[in-house]
What we know:
The complex is a heterodimer of chains A (643) and B (527).
Chain A: H1 2-10, E1 17-19, E2 24-25, E3 43-46, E4 51-54, E5 59-62, E6 75-77, E7 85-88, E8 91-94, E9 98-100, E10 104-107, E11 112-115, E12 129-132, E13 142-146, E14 153-157, E15 166-168, E16 178-182, E17 184-187, E18 197-201, E19 213-222, E20 226-230, E21 237-246, E22 252-257, E23 272-280, E24 283-287, E25 300-302, E26 305-307, E27 318-321, E28 331-339, E29 354-362, E30 371-373, E31 378-387, E32 399-401, E33 410-418, E34 431-434, E35 445-454, E36 466-469, E37 478-482, E38 485-492, E39 513-514, E40 517-521, E41 546-547, H2 559-566, H3 573-589, H4 601-610
Parallel strand pairs in A: 1-3, 2-4, 3-6, 4-7, 5-8, 7-10, 8-11, 9-12, 10-13, 11-14, 12-15, 13-16, 14-17, 15-18, 16-19, 17-19, 18-20, 19-21, 20-22, 21-23, 22-24, 23-25, 23-26, 24-27, 25-28, 26-28, 28-29, 29-31, 30-32, 31-33, 33-35, 34-36, 35-37, 35-38, 37-39, 38-40, 40-41
Chain B: H1 2-19, H2 24-27, E1 43-45, E2 57-60, E3 69-74, E4 77-80, E5 94-98, E6 101-106, E7 119-121, E8 125-129, H3 137-143, E9 152-156, E10 162-163, E11 178-183, E12 189-191, E13 202-203, E14 210-212, E15 217-223, E16 228-231, H4 277-285, H5 306-309, E17 315-318, E18 321-324, E19 334-338, E20 343-347, E21 358-363, E22 365-368, E23 371-374, E24 385-390, E25 396-401, E26 408-415, E27 423-430, E28 437-438, E29 441-447, E30 464-467, E31 471-472, E32 479-485, E33 494-501, E34 518-526
Parallel strand pairs in B: 1-2, 9-11, 10-12, 13-16
Antiparallel strand pairs in B: 2-3, 3-4, 5-6, 7-8, 8-9, 11-15, 12-14, 15-16, 17-18, 19-20, 21-34, 22-23, 24-25, 25-34, 26-33, 27-32, 27-34, 28-31, 29-30, 29-33
Amino acid sequence: MRVLILLCCVLPAQAAAISSAQSGVWGNTATWTGGVIPGNGDTVTIGNGHTITISSGTTVTVGSSPADDSGTKAIQCASGSGTGVLVVSGTLIFRGPVMQCASAWAISPGATITHDSSLAATPATANYKWRFTGAAAQTSAYLNAIGTASNRITFNVAAGSGNAGGFDSYNGSGTDGNLFLEYVDVSKWGVAGAAGKWVTIYPFNCSTSVVRGFILRNSTVDSSAEIALQNIFGSCTFDFYNVAITNPTAARAIGIGTGNAVNTNLAANGRRRIENVFVEGAGVNVTAHATTLWSDLGFQFSGNYFRSSTAASSIPAFVCGGRCVVGASGRSDLNWYESRDATQASGSRPPGGASSRLMIVMADASNGHNATIMPEDSTIDGWFAWNSLDGDNGDDNMLIPGSTAGGNRTLVIKNGVVLKRPSGGDVGTVMDLNSSTCTGANCPAVTFDKNTWFVGDFTTTSQLSVTLESTNGYAGIVASVRDNIAHRTTSGIGQVVKWTSGASVVNGVFVNVDYNWTHNITSSPKYYSKAGAFAEYNATPGANDQSGDPLFVEVTRTPLTYAQRWDASVTTMEGLGAKFKACYQYRANGATSCDPRFFDLADMYNWVRAGWRTRNPATWTAAHDGTHVGGVAPTKEFGVLAQ
Amino acid sequence: MRTTLFTAILVVSGVLWAQTRVDLKGQSRNADLSQMNPTLTVETKTQLPAQCVQGQLLFLTTAAGGRNLYGCTATDIWQEQGTAGEMSAGSGLAKMQNGSTFVWSADSTVLPYLGLDNAFLGDNAFAGKFTTAPGSIQTVIASDGIDVSTVTVRPIRTMAALTMVATPTIANGDDGQHAYVWNAGLYDVVLQDRSTLAGSNLCLAGGANATLAAKALVHLVYTAAADCWMQTGGASLGNEGGGAVSSVFGRTGAVVAQAGDFNSGQVTEAGNLYYTDARARAAFTAGAGINLAAGVISAVGDTTTAANAGAAGANVLKAGTNVTARRLVAGSNVTITENTDDITITATGGGGGGAGGLQRDFPAAICQSAAGSLAWNVGSASAPVPDCVIGANGVIYGVAKFSNSSTQAMQQSLDLPASVSTVTFGLAWRAMAAGGDVVWQVRYLIVGADGTAADDPDLNGAGVTVAATAVSSAVGVLKQSAITITPTNAGGKRIYFTVFRDNAHASDTFAHGTYTPELAKVTVVVQ
Lengths: 643, 527
């Protein structure tokens, strides 16, 4: 009897599979077969050619709250290649997976898309995805969620729900799906965990006439997983602009790879860009397809502020695998890569190609390697590196050329400054050809000119400067070490060029090692030679070196002191990051203002480097070509006004 | 032959003197000489002897005919005998009569002046030559420097209207001689200019003939260079009076113009006339204005104009547009002086600063792309550190950070005005910590304007150092320090001043591990 009563009460709410009868408003009975408006517990199939609209101001809850993403779909199409359309102008609460059609679905400004697994057996693991088509090789599946600055679109989860499974264009057998998001705020999308992803987009058959791929602009992403993008084909778009990603739940916030783009035939309005993006707590990776190694990806990286996770062995703030910015549209400028793993052995990898205004920072208390550079005929022109922690005497701030494809590549590192550690600790090697990253002819020919670095004030173990590590190299692999400034705060040992005693480098490895400026370095000679005859050099190194106090303007300048100058309450890198985060979030969603002094990375870059201008006139002409030595143009070129 | 004749004459003469001398008194009585051949009864001479005895007669052969006989009226005094035809001085009225009509008469006072050349010419003219200017006329003529002895009056008279055709019309005179031709008759007499009458020696006014009406007079002056009688006094011919005005402006006698004789309504406006004040103002008030092509408005003695007196300015019409003239008002530290021809505007002390005087700001540094650069001259080793101050509100300025552990300095210079009494250095600075007091100092040199050692040896001098009063720092607050100097003989020269901070100064107690005093600007005020 009790059973009968229960059936009596439950039956009216029993889930139903409802199909659309025609195009129309969701809340209109005429829209649906049988005249029943789909609601909570129901599932919906949108017929081919039908456009169903959730009107502004209305809320639709749909789905049967299955146990997991493999359960019955809350919304689906009549077939994998169905052409039904869903337009959401109000609020859609989906309690089951969504499989959209091979058509363009739209989410209008002001709409809200809420994932709700709160009624599932185990809400935390019921992570329903939003998929693109049920068939392979479809090219017409789009989700356009284009809000406005004043009417943003929200992607969130319901109270008691697990995270959304995220958008997924990979159906297991083929690829499709294009996701364009602008003025959206995303929260708790993607399965939590190192491998979780809230966006998986495999654009298919990118052409020159249609924009396909992934766009995320003027948006915030919080407590969500990775954005995983694959298939970097010639004209596919991967565009990140004005994005703030905070509290990521995956190891990577953005992972782009598995492609063979050659940077040709970009579609109209299409681009590969990561610009003005803030990531804190995870890494960003861009890696070309392994089987088409080092293709020209043609990315634009600029104005980004990447802070990695503090977890041990986490992914560095930014890693470019390959020729990321090589190509007609490629560039890398004004980027901050901050690795926060204090035990990290490998730091960020600036992109192969042309980079400028590079800031590579690490908080490493062990033997960290700040940057590994994939050389690929690359140039880093204008940079500073800094270890914000005092720690051991290891190889902090090391710039390590990586291996090349086929050899005969070049790497130019110039106009850079290695800043002092907070208490004057050793910064380690500034350029290290290391057998762990390249060997023999696969190592590029490195030019290391016009850089300024702090050797360190240790008295007995003052570290190397330009070096080879565990490799014998080959003649000419270090093409030039000229016009640099190597200095200590107090007098002590130090050398401009040195290598590990275990390596017996071949003769003539070092070419054009001269015209360097040293200060407070007492070692003599200042260039290492195992046999004492400088056979490793093409000529006796340092014949035209000079020494003396360069009279730096202010050697205490670091990114942290930049923040402290404006706000004395900023005492840590977390505080610095918070300042910039506020401005990136302001750019992304305009919701709150920020301290304008942290709006632009250029101010910090310029201010820090300005402290390393030299005022000793002798340094202004000490280079091999009569120009200045060191990584920063001297004071006289900054416009001292004489009357 | 010539010698022979001369010798013969000498012989004959000697014989005559020796044989013809006869003593009639002793040798005859009552002799009758009538039947005698011609006899020389008077001694003949070619010149008067110097000596004679009374009663002696002499025939002067060289004298004019009829005036040859001279008698010795007293010892050694010869006098011409039997002279006739010359009037003798006397009284009475001289008259000339034509038939029964007197045509000319002269007062008896004239007679004494009629000289030897007086003569009657024909029956109707009388030419007289004054040897001395008569009466009151003499004074007038003499003042012009004219030789009054050559003034001639030539009255003429005709029996009917006559055009003079005789040439020369009047006999040529002496250079500068005046002649008055007076038509004494009743009919017009036309004098012909030599341009119309060949042989005429009259140069009449305008080269035209002159008609002498009855009683009319023409004044001529003979000019030798022109060889003619020049008419003077213009073409009008007067009658020497006649039609006399009894009074002028109600006054008789020598009338001189005086105020009130005319009013402006009786004066026709022309190019050489002026508006009266009243009429000019009336024209302005009516809105008609006064057209000025390229002139000058001259306002003399009236400094109260519409623009100065009220809020509204006067309208000046310029190319069809009314332009309101505004008055000049002197602001603080400015003096406006109205001169005779211009206005002088003078800034007191040369500047417009609140306290007056020349003021100039020297920012310590400039800030570009968050990188500061010093805007001063500095040495390479002791220069302060340029930096930026970027406010959260967007205000940006550069600063120079002065060390807490050494003396750092920077230098500027400034041309001083012609007159200098004081120079004040105002220093605006801050610190990001309240670490104590800061003492700013200035060392200055004043040199010649061209800044060369040759111009002023003081360029090589050590200069003068002055220190500001110690001022306590406050976190992030702009503080002010000031130094005033009173240099002598500094006008028109150039001052080099070095602003520095010596952390070892006894009153400088600012000491902080991180922050240093940051100088924002130096304001120099010259009074």
